[in-house]
Amino acid sequence: MKINLQSLTIIKAHKSLIEGDFTAVELVQSYLDEIKKKNGEIHAYLEVYEDVLDQAKSADKAIADLKKENKEVPMLMGIPLAIKDNILVKGKTVSAASKILENYKATYDATVIKRLQQENGAILIGRTNMDEFAMGGSTEKSAYGVTKNPHDMRRVPGGSSGGSAAAVAGDLALAALGSDTGGSIRQPASFCGLAGLKPTYGVVSRYGLMAMGSSLDQIGPFGKTVGDAEIIFNAIRGRDPMDSTTLEKPKAENTLPISKHGESKVKGKKATNLKKSVIGVPWHFLDKGLDPAVKKNLDDTISKLKGHGYEIKEITLPNIAYSLPVYYVIMPAEVSSNMARFDGVKYGLHADGKNSIEDYFESRAAGFGPEVRRRILLGTYVLSSGYYDAYYYRANAVRRLITEDFNKAFESVDIILTPTAPSPAFKIGEKTADPVAMYLEDIFTVTANLTGLPALSVPTGFSEIEGKKLPIGMQLTSRHGDESALFQAGKDIEVEGK
Amino acid sequence: MISKKDIENLANLARIRLSEEEKEGLAKDVDSILAYVDQIKAAPIGDFKQQPGAVKNVMREDVIVMTSDKDRGRLIDEAPKREGDFVAVKKIL
Fold first, then answer.
1. How far apart are CA A5 and CA A210, in angstroms?
2. Is the residue at B14 inside a domain?
3. Where are the domains of chain A?
4. Which residues of B touch A394 (CB under 8 A)?
5. Against a cut of 0.90, is the pTM above it?
6. Total count of domains within chain B
7. How distant, in Å, are the alpha carbons of A83, A103, A205, A232, A243 from that of A94?
8. What is the pLDDT of residues A148-202, one digit of tens each?
9. Residues of A with CB below 8 A from B57's CB?
10. What is the CATH number of the domain that holds B14?
11. Nearest one of A117, A47, A55 to A85, comparing CA atoms
């Protein structure tokens, strides 16, 4: 049978796999056919695994066995997923789209991979392109070529998880995993018309994720719908003894020490189920720099929310304008520390120098691309003695002010609404010359990483530009640990289809 | 202003060899990024004190776990050079 991949969701595919409309092998074969047709141009995958059909056969057998025993079949069993190239899958090449790890084979599975593949029976199709070590906002900074936006091949898919977003938007995978340090899931989700979640800091294990900014990084899902993203999030979340930054009480019902939930939440009930959430909009931060189509979509989304019974309130976040400058101090500082591990000795590329010290210089020069070098040098600068107080220490102080602003706002609202990105997808090459112009892409997304708050990009509409329909996304942010509020409101505003 | 010499010093600290052309470009880039992030100097930080967040230290028992030969082999195989069961590097002393 011909499977309609375009309208397929995880929930629909799960139902079809159980009812026998199609098998996991047939489903995977449909995706492999699409990949053969389209990946050459889109370049979403760096590698399609050779054992995909074997994985599908195992899933079919597991589904048949569970049905025979009258047991529940996990929602993700037999579901084909794409994985960002910075998440370890044992025995497979994982390169972070960098030359320095071109031939690196992972020696263990990331916890998220264990949960998806071993505990839930999901199928991993392959590893997706990204900005090198997740440093970028367009997937143009990969060492292996640019990924194109399936909605308009002249445009970027966003980044850094652009390959994962393009794979799902191009019907080359049903859903995907990405990582988000300053917007790297949400901005590509917005550019590609998908739902993308950056979970609460500490809710999803990062064991097996290549570190970029350790106080900022989180793994999260891409889905065609909010419901699909929610299913994957529920499969990967939870405390992990292998990642000491995961929180002990990761469930939304629990009150996390840093959150300020309403009273009904403290008692373990979901306030959001009792009445519709109150949505705050920081208009003072949205009055300039927004593309007119994004502004109109924001207005339309607010009307839609009102129609669903949500109360809309104007809020003020006094220090939010400092978010991006703070981010571009803290992130490079952490990058410069995390990248120190690539030394040409333990793993990865080695280039020979005259002595062992020169081996470092040569290996790192041969292995790291321009954006990675730029951020390492910037991080080295802001951490160097004489500049530490002016930059790193000060940035951490402002980070605290921003977090306090959000916590205060959450005393009177449940969700904060902004666009995900200031504009729809831009053209390939448009922002590569000026690093600061590229950094401005993250203006609305970095706050969630700085504060640790969960944030969801929801596909809310399109803008017609040069004859192409370009997706627009809106971002919802909620209290620490309150992803459920995001999913509920996200489902009320999402717009499906292409 | 970030000079070419500053970039050379940073590259030396970060253990990266740069081409002459790259040094010029990086001096310009780092300058423009620093000009942008300098905004934080105007933020009203008051008397900020570092505080721990929700994340806390997690300790475990110090138990020796034997890694299988296969796993050890995989790890050492990833090293650019190996000699038997050792990772090989240049002479240091």
1. 31
2. yes
3. 1-498
4. 40-41, 43, 45
5. yes
6. 1
7. 10, 8, 18, 21, 20
8. 999 999 999 999 999 999 999 999 999 999 999 999 999 999 999 999 999 999 9
9. 244
10. 1.10.20.60
11. A47
Residue B55, domain member (yes or no): no
Q: Which CATH number fits domain A1-498: 3.30.70.140, 3.90.1300.10, 3.40.50.150, 3.40.50.2300?
A: 3.90.1300.10
Of chain B residues 7-46, which have a CB less than 8 A from chain A?
A: 7, 10-11, 13-18, 22, 26, 29-30, 32-34, 36-41, 43-45
| Chain B contact set for A368 (CB, 8 A) | 16
Cβ–Cβ under 8 Å, residues A352 and A362? yes
* Site from B10, B40, B72 to mutate, A interface, most A CB atoms within 10 angstroms: B40
For A257, the enclosing helix (H) or strand (E) is none
Range of the domain at B27: 4-42
Sheet order of strands, A123-128 included: A45-48, A123-128, A80-84, A175-180, A218-223, A195-198, A455-465, A468-478, A415-419, A278-281, A311-314
Give residue-wise pLDDT tens across range A243-278.
Answer: 989 987 644 443 333 333 333 333 344 444 446 899
**Cβ contact (<8 Å) for A355 and B30?**
no
- CA A453 to CA A450: how far, in whole Å? 8
CA–CA separation, A43 and A312 (whole Å): 41
d(CA A494, CA A457) in angstroms, rounded, equals: 10
Taking contacts as CB-CB distances below 8 angstroms, the residues of chain A near B82 are none
- Alpha-carbon distance B66 to nearest alpha carbon in chain A (angstroms): 16
List B residues 44-83 in contact with A (Cβ-Cβ < 8 A): 44-45, 48, 50-51, 53-55, 57-58, 60, 71, 74-75, 77-81
